Amino acid sequence: MPNKKLRPQKRRRRSIIAFEMIRLDRTATEPLHEQLYRQIRDQLKSGRFSGGSSRLPSSRVLATDRGISRSTVRLALSKLHAEGYLQSKPGSGTFVANFLPERSLTADQPNTYQSIQRPVRISDRVKAIPDERVGNQFDLGATGAGPGVSLVASIPAVDEFPIAIWERLRAQVLAKKGVNLLRYSSNRGDVDLRKAIAAYLCDFRAARCHPDQIVIVAGMQQAMLISAMAVLNPGEAVWIEDPCYQQTRRVLGLAGVKVIPKAIDTDGIVIARSPKEPLPKMIYVTPSHQFPLGVTMSFQRRTDLLDFARTHNAFIFEDDYDAEFRFVGPPLPSLQGIDNASRVIYAGTVSKILCPSLRLGYVVAPEQLVDSFVKIRSAMDQHSSPIEQATLARFITEGFFLSHIKRMRKLYAERRDFFIKQFNELLGDRFTLQVPEAGLNIVAWLKREEDFPVIRRITSEIGVRPSALSFFCIQAKLKPAFVFGFAAWTRTQIRESLIKLTLALRNHGKDQNYGHRTR
Ligand SMILES: Cc1ncc(COP(=O)(O)O)c(C=O)c1O
After folding, report:
1. Ligand 1: distance of its center to the CA of 244 in Å?
2. Residue 346 forms beta bridges with which residues?
């Protein structure tokens, strides 16, 4: 017999219902136990509590809380038991029943508004966001990838995140700064973090900035939204890359601006425009590593873009989301670093370097824009968590940030090489890989365009889930391709996923042939 004491205790998560809203009226003619019974029943019928896991307080606690006798409580609870609203679990307590009596669940539902069939009022702002998802599709986040799904684009290896170090630093900053980290805090961001980021950007991204130009934000998306809201009026034109990061279009839709897709060539975003095309007030670019095509903007295109922005009084939004992970040659300097006219709004994020759930990013605003940016941040949600900001500041100043980047760059380079080798061996007959110089993704172009619908269906069925390149296209008509992520999976997982995809495609081919022969 295994020793019970040695077995880890399995703690089940159970929420205890507080019943804070119960009001008992001692002057009413309705007996107290009836009032209690009725009010608890109505709360259970509201459907807010999950059957089987929501626990009722003990009769003693309920009696003390409400200032009534335990026998009154017991009378009310026994009636609820008898009617099937509650269930007892020996040794655990009294719980909301798994299935509440059905008739009573609908009995008191008001039906007055059901008869009025009006379309729901939704703002134009919502309609302007190009996002087809509904309901629980939002639970999977922007990548749309649930657990167990592999080779999804843009996902970093979060299992390599040094949680123990982070936790230690967090405990240290909490011990040192105490309640100061629990208060409302600077709308510009933690001062130590702004200093640390300014130093990092000057050293490693060749940026030219000082800490007062840094605004800490909740990731790249918020950086885009704040920038768009600070420099653009609704309806004004923004150029974006086509194909483009899907969240950029959604954010700009929310900002109510006019999105003008611009093609990408081998030098980066194409600046040439037709005379009818409105001049942009802002230009969104990913110069270090275009998402999703992977082009690095040439030096000539960078200077042309800066000249264009200066001439037409436009701002450039530089999304430097994954510049840290360059595998070929030295990291490229940022566009911000060669801008002499304060035209570039530079933004970075820790989503790829560390992990996306931190929701932390940074903007380097041209000096004349800083206060406007901060004003918007203040009106939006004030600031990011001071605890996480202070922890990140320590993480950077103590050298963990740089060592993590170095370690991950090496790991991603290995995974990239492994992916390429395995992919070409297994799937080289169907795809041509575009070997990336940087980043976490690889574009695989189809050799036969007609394979596209089948591959798209199969990848979604088997849970090996690259994105179709067309998902990121606005007007661009590119040859069919898929964007694979390789960074978040071990060699074994990469190999298994690629074998799974190869076999699924092969089996599909066999079914096809069989179908033809029998017809
Ligand atoms: C082009 C681009 N920018 C930014 C991000 C990350 O944004 P955030 O900081 O909002 O997570 C991504 C993530 O995939 C991206 O592809």
Report:
1. 11
2. 318, 364
What CA dihedral angle connects 46, 48, 50 and 55, to 10 degrees?
-90
Residues having CB within 6 Å of any atom of ligand 1: 154, 219-221, 245, 286, 291, 319, 321, 349, 351, 356, 361
The number of angstroms, rounded, from the C-alpha of 442 to the middle of its chain's C-alpha atoms is 20
Atom of ligand 1 nearest to the CA of 361: 9
CB 86 within 8 A of CB 56: yes
- Helices assigned H by DSSP within 232-357: 246-254, 299-311
Mutation test of ligand 1: which of 321, 360, 362 has the most ligand atoms closer than 8 Å to its C-beta? 321
Q: What does each C-alpha distance from 49 to 54, 129, 482 come to in angstroms?
A: 6, 33, 43
Q: Name the residue of 291, 324, 363 to mutate for ligand 1: max ligand atoms within 8 A of Cβ.
A: 291
Kindly tell me the sign of the dihedral angle through the C-alpha atoms of 239, 242, 244, 248.
Answer: positive
Say if CB 351 and CB 213 are below 8 A apart.
Answer: no
List the structure tokens of 276. Answer: 């009818």
> Tens place of pLDDT for every residue, the chain, 519 residues?
444 444 444 455 566 787 788 888 888 888 899 989 998 888 888 777 777 778 888 888 888 888 899 999 999 998 998 888 898 888 888 888 888 875 444 444 545 455 567 888 999 999 999 998 888 888 888 887 778 899 999 999 999 999 999 999 999 999 999 999 999 999 999 999 999 999 999 999 999 999 999 999 999 999 999 999 999 999 999 999 999 999 999 999 999 999 999 999 999 999 999 999 999 999 999 999 999 999 999 999 999 999 999 999 999 999 999 999 999 887 789 999 999 999 999 999 999 999 999 999 999 999 999 999 999 999 999 999 999 999 999 999 999 999 999 999 999 999 999 999 999 999 999 999 999 889 999 999 999 999 999 999 999 899 999 999 999 999 999 999 999 999 999 999 999 999 999 999 998 866 665 444 333
Amino acid at 145: A
